[in-house]
Amino acid sequence: MKSNNLFSFEVKWKAIVTCDKRYDGKFFYAVKTTGIFCRPSCKSKTPNYENICIFKNAMEALQQGFRPCKRCRPELFIDIYDPQQEVVEKTKFYLEKNYEKKSP
Fold first, then answer.
1. Vertex 39, ends 11 and 10: CA angle to 5°?
2. For labelling, which of 80, 87, 100, 101 has a CA lying 20 to 30 Å from the CA of 22?
3. Does pTM surpass 0.85?
4. pLDDT tens per residue, range 55-95
């Protein structure tokens, strides 16, 4: 993947519309009407083209007063966020811890 500076606005818009995970961590977008910023892969409703602004990183969006999306969690400062990962890890831990216990 090329660096952020080489992506045109149209390429970024297409990534937002298609929820393309390949662009996560490369840029973030905010929606002026909601005051929320997201990752390109966010599954939230696609914003209107004229209502978005693009940021190089999450810190820029935070500094401009935008709030992080509760769905895609862009403030976690990781390239890819999987909302199911925490559930998987907790389940795996529970199973490993309790595998040999007999049920009552």
1. 15
2. 87
3. no
4. 999 999 999 999 999 999 998 866 666 666 777 778 888 88
Write the pLDDT tens digit of every residue in 4-63. Answer: 556 899 999 999 999 999 999 899 999 999 999 999 999 999 999 999 999 999 999 999
For the chain, which residues make up each domain, given as ranges? Answer: 4-98
Contact yes or no for 37/67 (Cβ under 8 A): yes
Question: What is the 3-state secondary structure of 16-71?
Answer: HHHCCHHHECCEEEEECCCCEEECCCCCCCCCCHHHEEEECCHHHHHHCCCEECCC
Catalytically active residues are: 38
Tell me if 44 sits within 8 A of 38, measured CB to CB: yes
The rounded percent of the chain whose pLDDT value lies above 90 is 60
Query: Are 64 and 52 spatial neighbours (Cβ–Cβ below 8 Å)?
Result: no
Q: Is the pLDDT of residue 3 over 60?
A: no
